[in-house]
Amino acid sequence: MAFWGGKPGARGGQQSIRSLVRRVYDFLDTSDPRPVAPFGHGDPSAFACFRTAAAATEAVVAAVLSGKHSRYSPAAGVADARSAVAAYLSRELPYELAAGDVVLTAGCNHAIEIMIAVLASPGANVLLPRPGYPTYEARAALCGLEFRHFDLLPEKGWEVDLDGVEAVADERTVAMVIVNPNNPCGSVYSYDHLAKIAETARKLRVMVISDEVYGHCVFGSKPFVPMGVFGETAPVVTLGGISKRWWMVPDWRLGWIAASDPKGVLRDKKVIQSIISYCGISVDPVTFVQGAIPQIIAKTDEAFFENAMNVMREAAEICYQKLNDIDCITCPHKPEGSMVVMVKLDLCCLDGIDDDVDFCTKVAREESVVICPGSGLGMKDWLRITFAVDRPLLEDGLERVKSFCNRHGKAKEVK
Question: Lesser CB count within 10 Å: N end or C end of the chain?
Answer without folding.
Answer: C
